[in-house]
Amino acid sequence: MWRSATFSLFKHAAKKFCAVHNNGLVRSSSSLLALVSKSPHFSTPNKPFLVLSQNPRFFSNLSHDIDGDDDSTVELEEGRNFSPISDENDGTRGEGFEVDVDKIEDSGVDVDKLESVLSLLQSSGDAVGSLESSFSAMDLILNEEFVVRVLETPLVPADNLIGFFKWAWKIPGFSVTTRTVDALVRAVCQSLRKKDAYALWDLVKEIGEKENGVLNVDILNELITQFAKLGKGKAGLEVFNAFGAYGFEPNADSYYFTIEALCRRSIFDWASSVCEKMLNAGSLPDVEKVGNIISWLCKGSKAKDAYLVYLSMREKKKYPPKRSINFLIVSLCREDETISMAVDMLDDFSVEDRKYAIKPYTSVIQGLCRRSKDVDGAKRLLLKMIDAGPPPGNAAFNFVINGLSKAGEMEEAMKMMKLMESRGLKPDVYSYSVIMSGYANGGMMEEACRVLSLAKKNHSKLSPVTYHTLIRGYCKLEEFDKAVALLGEMKDHGVQPNTDEYSKLIQSLCLKGLDWKAAEKLLEEMKDNGLYLNGVTRSLIRAVKELEEEEEGLATEKVRVEV
C-alpha cells in the first residue's frame, strides 16, 4: 500500500522538478526518462520506469520542496530508466517496483495529507493527545483506503497507530471495517511491547462490543499469537474465551496458539482444559503442530492428556513427528498407570521405523521392570525385539537382568546374560553386579563369588558397588572375616574403598560382631587413606570398647570375690 503512495509523492515532486520555464509544460510521468546525474537519490538502470525514495518507508524523504524555478535544467534522454540505489541506513539495495500511475489517484486518497499524517505519526513519539489535536486541525477526509494506507506503513510506533485509529473511529462518516481492524492488529503485532498488546486488546474488545460483524477469527488468532510471543498465557486465554461472546467458533489455529501461550507460561492445567475442548470439537491442527502440543504437555507432566491427542490423530490415520512420539512414550513410562499406553503405542511403529526405535522400546522395558514390576512382560518385549527389531542393546538386557535378580529368579537372570553374550554383546560391570546382588540377597555367597570371578576375568577394573554387594552379603551372614578380606582384595584390584564402605563394615563389626579391635584397625586404615569417619560411628567404636572393658572389669571383680 505504501509503495503506491510513495510513487504518487514522487510523481508530484518530479513534475515540479521537471518544469520547463519556456512554455510551462510539465512532461507526464510516462515520458520521464532520467533525472540529473547530480541527484544523490537516483542512479541510472536498465528496467521499466521505477519509483524510489532514499528510504521508501518514510514519506517525509520526499517532503522537501523541489523548486521548479531553479536555474538548473533537467535533460531527458529517451530510452533511459531509473532504479533505486542502496539505502544509506541499512546498506541494502531495494528492488524496483512497477506501478500503475492512475491507481493511487483513483483510490480517493489525498497524497499530501497522507504524507502529513505519516510524518506526524513517525515523529511524534508517544504524544497521543497532541496527535489527536493535530489530526483534527488537518481537516482530513477519512475513508477505508486512507486509514489502511496509514496502518500498513512500516516503522510507525504502535501506540501512535492505536491513537490514530481511536481518533478516526470518532470521526463522523468513517466506518470501522474488518479490513481496517485487521490492518491495525497486524501492524501493532509487529511491536513486542506488552503495553501495546494490552492496549490493542482493549481496543478490539471495545470494537467487538460496539461494532457488529467487524471482528473475525483471524483477528483474534493474531492477538492470541502476540500474547504467546510475549509470554502472556492468561491474556491469550482471555482472547480465546471471548470467541463465544463474539459469535465465533475457534478453529484449529485458535486452539493451537492458545495452548502454546499457556504452555510457555507453564500453565499446563489450563492448557489441558483447552486441549480437551479441541478434541471434543475435532479441530486439530496439522501434524507438526500436534507434535508440538504433545511435547508441551509431556514437559508439563501431562502425558495422559498428550496420549489422548495422539489417539485422536491415530483415528484419522495421521501420526505426529517421530520425535514427539518417542518423547510421549518415554513420558508414559514414568508412571505406573500409563505404561500400558506406551506398550500400546509400540505396535504403531512400521517395520522401517522400528529399526530406529531403540530408545522408546528400551524405555518401555525399563518402565515395566521398575514401575509395574512386570518383569515377565519386559522379558517378552525383549524377546520380541530380538525377533522383529529393533535389536536390543546392553541397557535393555540389563533392565531385565536387574528385574529378574530382584525377583530372585537367578537362573533366568543367568540365562539372560548368556543370551546377551550369544548376540555379541559383552556384559558390563553393572550386569555382573546386579546378579551378584541377587545371589547375596538370597544368602548364596558361593554363587556370588563365582560371578565375581567371571567379572574379574572379563573386566580389568570393577566398581566399588560390585564389592560392596558382597561385603554386605557377608556382613548379613555375620562372616566378618571374609568381609574384611574382601575389602583388602578390593584394594589389590585397584578399587579404592570409599568412606561408605568402611563405615558400613565398621558398624557391622560393632553392632553384630562386637569386634571393636577390628573396627579400630579399619579406622586407622581410613586415616592412612585420607578418609574421615563421622562422629557417630567413632562413638560407636568407643562405646563397644568401653562396654567390653566394663564387662571384663565385672568379670575380674567377680573372680576376686569368689576367691
**Overall morphology:** elongated
How much is the average pLDDT? 81
Structural class: mainly alpha
Instruction: Classify the beta-strand content into a percent band.
Output: under 5%
Radius of gyration: 41 Å
Count of DSSP helices? 28
Q: Which stretches are poorly predicted, pLDDT < 50 over at least 5 residues?
A: 1-101
Q: Major sheet: size, sense and barrel closure?
A: none
Helix content range:
55-70%
Distance between the termini: 123 Å
| Helix and strand element order | HHHHHHHHHHHHHHHHHHHHHHHHHHHH
Number of separate strands: 0
Describe the structure.
With 563 residues, the protein is mainly α. It is built from 28 helices and no strands. The protein has helices at 2-17, 103-106, 111-123, 128-137, 144-151, 158-170, 178-188, 194-210, 217-229, 233-241, 252-264, 268-281, 287-299, 303-315, 322-332, 339-346, 351-354, 358-370, 375-388, 394-406, 410-422, 429-441, 445-458, 464-476, 480-492, 499-513, 516-528, 535-562. The longest helix is centred in the last third of the chain and has 28 residues, at 535-562. The termini are far apart.
Element layout with pairings:
Layout: H1 2-17, H2 103-106, H3 111-123, H4 128-137, H5 144-151, H6 158-170, H7 178-188, H8 194-210, H9 217-229, H10 233-241, H11 252-264, H12 268-281, H13 287-299, H14 303-315, H15 322-332, H16 339-346, H17 351-354, H18 358-370, H19 375-388, H20 394-406, H21 410-422, H22 429-441, H23 445-458, H24 464-476, H25 480-492, H26 499-513, H27 516-528, H28 535-562
